[in-house]
Amino acid sequence: MIPICRLDDLPEGESVRIDTTPPIAVFNADGELYAIDDTCTHQDASLSEGWLEGCLVECPLHAASFDLRTGQPTCLPARRAVRTHHVTVDDGVVYVHVAAQEGTAA
């Protein structure tokens, strides 16, 4: 579990990038918090720098779009999903529970 920021410091429509390996992006989409791997699966671009609309984030390079709830791409050129992570808030602090990478033990 990684502490990210105070909930008050992540307003609706904004995101924050966590410099983990791999980097993770946390989004406040209409009051709901979502965390995904920050790197677009089409090409190395930070999704935290993309455009947020509802539960979708658009990659700033080639307009690939990902559903924050599932990590699934919603249009080309991306074909592979990004990994999602569980987010909780405790005592006003946002935490990310990092999901295990494929091929590793949980």
Write the layout of secondary structure elements.
Layout lengths: L1 E5 L8 E4 L5 E6 L2 E6 L13 E3 L2 E3 L6 E3 L16 E7 L2 E5 L9
Antiparallel strand pairs: 1-9, 2-3, 3-4, 4-8, 5-6, 6-7, 8-9
What can you tell me about this protein's structure?
By secondary structure, the protein is an all-beta fold. It has a single domain, classed as Rieske [2Fe-2S] iron-sulphur domain (Rieske Iron-sulfur Protein, 3-layer Sandwich), CATH 2.102.10.10. It is 0% helix and 40% strand. The protein has no helices and nine strands. The chain has strands spanning 2-6, 15-18, 24-29, 32-37, 51-53, 56-58, 65-67, 84-90, 93-97. It has a six-stranded antiparallel beta sheet, with no helix packed on it. Strands 5-6-7 form a three-stranded antiparallel beta sheet, with no helix packed on it. A hairpin with a 2-residue loop joins strand 5 (51-53) and strand 6 (56-58). It comes from Streptomyces flaveus. InterPro entries: Rieske_2Fe-2S, Rieske_2Fe-2S_sf. Residues 2-96 form the Rieske domain. This is Bifunctional 3-phenylpropionate/cinnamic acid dioxygenase ferredoxin subunit. Pfam families: Rieske (PF00355).
What's this model, at a glance?
The protein is an all-beta fold. It contains no helices and nine strands.
